[in-house]
Amino acid sequence: MFFGNMAFFTDQMKELLCPLPDLSKCDGIGNIDEEQKREPIVLIMDCTLVLGIDSSAARAIVKLKDTILKEYKIQLCIFVSGSIEGFPTEFDLRDKLSTERDIFDSNPPSEDTSLLAEQIKDEEDQNMSKYTGSCVRDSLDLALMEAEDALIAKQNPSLLEEDDLLTQFTFNVQSDALSSTEEKEEFISSFKVICPINISDEEVNLLFLSFEREVFQEGDLIWKQNDQSDCVKLLILGQLIAELENEAGTKEIVPKGSIIGELGLVNGDPRMSTVKCSSKDAVLYSMNREKFEKLVVQQPKLARYIDLICVKYLTLRVQHVSNRIFETRCLPI
Length: 333
Hints:
Layout (H helix, E strand, L loop, with lengths): L2 H14 L3 E2 L15 E2 L3 E5 L8 H16 L5 E5 L12 H5 L17 H16 L2 E5 L2 H16 L1 H17 L6 H15 L6 H8 L3 E6 L3 E3 L7 E7 L2 E5 L5 E5 L4 E2 L1 H6 L6 E4 L3 E8 H10 L1 H29 L5
Parallel strand pairs: 3-4, 4-5
Antiparallel strand pairs: 1-2, 6-13, 7-12, 8-11, 8-13, 9-10, 9-12
């Protein structure tokens, strides 16, 4: 993004933000009441695939943010940097796009103010301020979670409070660790979700016998970019982070329930990224090449599920790139 394309980008954003008519409120002859037009509540601007932003474009984005919040009355605007290191620009874009959500009341209470009324007003101001303005998130998943919370808070803030209390109670009582039986159940459910076609519990149980349990600590290296591909791993507990070392440090979070290394295991290519443990602990189940090749010979149907998972993931990546080409008329380099 640079000064040459920001005018076009800004015009496109303003066009997209024009209120959309709610056809259900149409009077039957095509006329739509202005008050019945649907207006966006939350806007997410995903900059994950933006490889560079010059200072002029960065300042234009800040101005666009102000326009979005004031003129179009968007309740919450979320910008996705795509990296924990921030946007690819020397300009401090993260700081400029993060509004302070204070709840300072410019009209302090007087002696005649009801304490109960003031307390209710403070609670309302806090709920509004927490999910209004603009903020920056490192990934699209985090942005979607923020947007979901904002919509819930708009409808009924107490629902979020109940979730917070329930979460705190659960975490205080239970440990993150899983028993061996729970880990096996997690393996089975995760594999069935990942597999693109129906697979029976019996077949997943047979596959489970070819996997071995591994435990990693925060900062531990799973493998390094260009290492030999000799296994496939399913993440049962914790979180990993994958990094492309030769491409400006591009990073991607690997959440629980993900399978990694399947393509390298099938076609033998070196590892395409460096993967490390980013949580306090991580439990993975790993199948090495020797056991995979044994499956290919003795139980080819089970081995084929790994092939199908490769096809599924490759298809998703190709569709993602194709959509980007169609929408932006350019291919990320």
